[in-house]
From TrEMBL:
Lineage: Bacteria, Bacillati, Bacillota, Bacilli, Bacillales
Superkingdom, taxonomy of origin: Bacteria
Organism from which the protein derives: Exiguobacterium undae
The protein's name in its UniProt record: Choloylglycine hydrolase
Domain Peptidase C45 hydrolase per the UniProt entry, residue ranges: 104-311
MF-aspect GO terms: hydrolase activity
The keyword Lipoprotein appears for this protein: no
Keyword Protease: no
Pfam families: AAT
Keyword set, alphabetical order: Hydrolase
CDD domains: Ntn_CGH_like (cd01935)
InterPro entries reported for this sequence: C45_proenzyme-like (IPR047794), Ntn_hydrolases_N (IPR029055), Peptidase_C45 (IPR047801), Peptidase_C45_hydrolase (IPR005079)
């Protein structure tokens, strides 16, 4: 059992200033070293075209391009290296587990992945130059694997496969752009249908209308269904699924079996976070262990967050933060059943 921690970073200002601030964060931990060594071992089988990448960001999320320039200036990197590490367009996307359940004014999600890739940072950002304020865990510094924005739109994604990639954004940047640029589930559906996709993922969106949709997205096709459960396989684009779906279907069966007993967000959170319920995963060395469980409440504008299993979540009042009151907490602490450390704490690739 290992003690783990997420640093809480809070920032109000322009995207460029936010990029500089994140660059300062990267410089005081091991994130960039790990990313550089990762690419030395796993030589990129793709090319990042700066001109094409800039065009895509200016089309879908122009202020995030300013954030990347801030990172570049603070870290004194070339534009090509900045985009390789933090741009998340055309790069190789992740493979992972993940389970999501939504209900009356809540989205609860298990993020299942490899600790070595995990930033260990919970970010709250209120831009002053455009785009929505966002709360949630960071992924590869600039991306978001789940979160909620100031309009009460909550999002989480689930991996499907990396076969036949396209020229497009990877999942954690798509998640960030959804939260930054959309105000409702309808906005999110329209945007995801329009954007180019690198890999195949399900994007689950839930808002104050209390509607929940799974957007099944690949580089070739996009389909949408209204549902409150999602694991790691498509229901509509079944021809895009992986061949090995046993664990994904097992977790879906656990969610469906227990669904009639879910009375509220707390019981949903316990179903996903308790290690004896069948949804929580300890497969960390297989890139599919549950690192965090998060819950988002669009109407109340609150967030629950826990690292590891069998935890009591830390609660954040996002509405109060948006009113100008910073969180006094600096870290979220927890425990996970593995010796593999987070990417920001150890140079694991060396």
């Amino acid at each position: 059992m290992q003690s783990v921690s997420n640093e809480i970073t809070q920032f109000r200002g322009t995207h460029y200033e936010f990029g500089r601030e994140q660059g300062r964060y990267v410089k005081r931990n091991e994130l960039l070293y790990n990313r550089e060594d990762n690419w030395k071992i796993r030589v990129p089988r793709f090319q990042v075209d700066p001109a094409e990448t800039k065009e895509m960001f200016l089309r879908y999320a122009p202020h995030i391009w300013d954030e990347l320039l801030g990172l570049q200036d603070e870290l004194e990197l070339s534009l090509a290296d900045t985009l390789l590490h933090f741009g998340h367009y055309r790069v190789e996307g992740p493979k992972s587990g993940c389970s999501i359940m939504t209900g009356d004014n809540f989205l609860v999600r298990n993020y299942d992945y490899h600790p070595m890739t995990y930033d260990g940072r919970f970010s709250v950002f209120q831009p002053t130059d455009g785009g929505s304020a966002i709360i949630g865990p960071a992924s590869r510094v600039t991306g978001r694997m789940d979160g909620m924005n100031e309009h009460g739109l909550a999002m989480g994604y689930n991996f499907i496969n990396r076969r036949r990639p396209g020229d497009g954004f990877v999942s954690f940047m798509i998640g960030r752009i959804i939260l930054e640029m959309c105000t409702s589930v309808d906005d999110a559906i329209s945007l995801v249908k329009e954007m180019p996709h690198r890999g195949s993922f399900s994007y689950v969106v839930h808002d104050r209308s209390n509607r929940s949709f799974v957007i099944e997205a690949t580089a070739r096709d996009i389909e949408v269904r209204e549902t409150n459960l999602c694991t790691n396989h498509f229901d509509l684009l079944q021809h895009e699924n992986r061949f090995h779906l046993d664990d994904s279907k097992r977790r879906m069966m656990e969610l469906k079996t227990h669904q009639h007993m879910i009375q509220d967000a707390e019981s949903a959170f316990r179903l996903l976070n308790d290690s004896d319920k069948g949804v929580f995963s300890d497969l960390y060395s297989h890139w599919a262990g549950t690192i965090h469980t998060s819950a988002y409440f669009p109407s109340d504008m609150k967030v629950w967050f826990a690292l590891g299993g069998d935890q009591q979540p830390v609660e954040f009042d996002f509405k109060d933060w948006l009113a100008g009151n910073d969180f006094t907490l600096s870290h979220i602490n927890g425990e996970i059943e593995t010796d593999i450390q987070f990417a920001n704490t150890l140079q694991t690739w060396r």
